[in-house]
Design goal:
CATH architecture of the largest domain: 3-Layer(aba) Sandwich
Helix content: 40-55%
Strand content: 15-25%
Shape: elongated
Distance between the termini: 54 Å
CATH class of the largest domain: Alpha Beta
Low-confidence stretches: 1-13, 200-214
Strand order of the largest sheet: 1-2-3-4-5-6
Oligomer: single chain
Number of helices: 9
Largest sheet: 6 strands, mixed
Length: about 210
């Protein structure tokens, strides 16, 4: 039977790029996740912009999602792995078939791997390896996700902000790691990320030391 659906015809005739995979993934996450307790963030900066996670889900944990499409290479993956391992409680990588074997070789065993492919013109996902919880988060990295005012509020909550109100954000982050428990840091960071209203303001915050609110 002749396929007369123009969208399906387009998908049938093309390789899967980042745009198509990302659109599918975001739609799928929005259907599954309760927006009251989950937020979905695209292009999430890590290590002050050294790399970006394609998609991040924030709920009771921080999940990073990486996409490797037909148009991508794996040249940056080892660098990404090193950074993702420091920030995320869980990581999932969605990749087309040509990348799967190499990813299985180099991705940590706790990373989830999912193959994304076309079947009869529709995008489908197959679980290759189920992910597990990351046991080695770097809390100095987690703290650096906070904007300056957010970081000060965390110190204020723990009565540790005296003498730090006018300090630069790096000194404030160091103070948090020294004086605040890992559990409290993680809980506060998740709350802060969920409460932000304008994610596009984050790069400006980083460039001006967080002195201005978005």
């Amino acid at each position: 039977m002749l396929n007369t659906d123009p969208l399906r015809s387009t998908i049938d005739s093309m390789r899967l790029g980042d745009k198509e995979i990302r659109s599918y993934l975001i739609s799928s996450l929005r259907r599954k996740l309760n927006p009251a307790s989950n937020i979905i963030i695209e292009e999430f900066d890590l290590a002050h912009g050294e790399t970006r996670a394609d998609v991040v889900v924030v709920n009771g944990k921080l999940t990073g999602i990486e996409i490797k499409s037909d148009l991508d290479t794996l040249n940056r993956l080892e660098r990404q792995i090193g950074l993702y391992n420091q920030y995320f409680d869980a990581v999932e990588i969605y990749a087309v078939e040509k990348h799967i074997e190499k990813i299985k070789e180099i991705a940590p065993r706790w990373w989830g791997i999912k193959k994304i492919h076309l079947k009869d013109g529709e995008i489908c996902v197959r679980v290759i390896r189920r992910g597990r919880r990351n046991a080695n988060i770097n809390f100095a990295r987690i703290v650096s996700l906070l904007w300056k005012e957010e970081a000060l509020n965390l110190l204020r909550e723990h009565k540790q902000s005296k003498g730090f109100e006018s300090k630069n954000r790096t000194l404030i982050w160091d103070r948090i790691v020294e004086k605040v428990s890992e559990r409290s840091i993680k809980s506060f960071v998740l709350r802060a990320l969920k409460s932000r209203q304008n994610w596009r303001s984050a790069p400006q915050q980083m460039s001006n030391d967080g002195l201005c609110r978005p």
